[in-house]
Recover the amino acids of this structure.
């Protein structure tokens, strides 16, 4: 494996651990508990699996810096897709999702 790719994986792992603590294991958007990928909870509720989310999507100029990354459940990540964060949060509260 190339050193750069290895570094990126290591950084992402560290980011996940820090973000999990910072967010108390809750989705950044809907505040529901997230399941760790590969766990029994994840198998039972695949849409609750923790994913890394770009607050500003890469297609809108977002970067991989820690400031732009949060952990969200797969459901939120999928729904948000390439929407910007403000639009997505507005939609979440409109639908009174959760
Ligand atoms: Zn969520």
């Amino acid at each position: 494996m190339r050193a750069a790719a290895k570094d990126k994986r290591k950084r992402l792992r560290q980011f996940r651990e820090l973000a999990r603590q910072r967010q108390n294991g809750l989705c950044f958007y809907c505040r529901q508990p997230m399941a760790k990928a590969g766990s029994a909870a994840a198998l039972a509720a695949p849409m609750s699996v923790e994913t890394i989310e770009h607050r500003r999507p890469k297609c809108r100029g977002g970067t991989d810096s820690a400031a732009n990354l949060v952990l969200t459940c797969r459901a939120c990540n999928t729904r948000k897709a390439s929407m910007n964060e403000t639009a997505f949060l507005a939609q979440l509260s409109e639908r009174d999702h959760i």
